């Protein structure tokens, strides 16, 4: 059995510099097992107060990057059209987002729902964005339209 005093303290009360092999094994096991146990999901609900573009919205003051959605840049005609689509879809409406705990820039990453429907999936199915399989796991791939694939350049990181 591993005893705490054997791991951390010498009989004189000074911190040991070396750790036991059992403690090192336990630490490595924890580092390998804990992340695979699943990322904690946080749910937020609220009104969409801002639509930055087709793949980034602000919900109750929280910026959210739609996970697995590859939208065109706002500086392009397709990007402006996609942003307008998302504004009409969710602007001022109450939605629910499941945040996965990851962040990109100032945004939390998650999947958001309007009346139970995934808004990222809706944008892709309407030809306003593409699937980003690196982050979606390919769940939106079958929703892409031929027109969107021809006019929207997929981001290199997808």
Written overview of the protein:
- The relative contact order is 0.14.
- This protein has helices spanning 4-8, 21-36, 77-90, 119-125, 133-136, 146-151, and strands spanning 42-53, 56-59, 62-66, 69-70, 94-104, 107-114, 117-118, 130-131.
- The chain is of the alpha+beta class and 158 residues long.
- The longest helix has 16 residues, at 21-36.
- It is built from 6 helices and 8 strands.
- The strands form 2 sheets. The protein has a 5-stranded mixed beta barrel with strand order 1-2-3-6-5. A two-stranded antiparallel sheet has the order 4-8.
- It is 33% helix and 29% strand.
Number of alpha- plus pi-helical segments: 6
Percent strand: 25-35%
pLDDT averaged over residues: 82
Describe the sheet with the most strands: 5 strands, mixed, barrel
User: What distance separates the N and C termini?
Assistant: 48 Å
What is the N-to-C order of secondary-structure elements (H for helix, E for strand)? HHEEEEHEEEHEHH
By secondary-structure content and strand pairing, the structural class works out as alpha+beta
Major sheet: arrangement of strands: 1-2-3-6-5
Fraction of residues in H or I helices: 25-40%
Rg value = 22 Å
Strand segment tally:
8
Shape: globular
Uncertain residue segments: 1-37
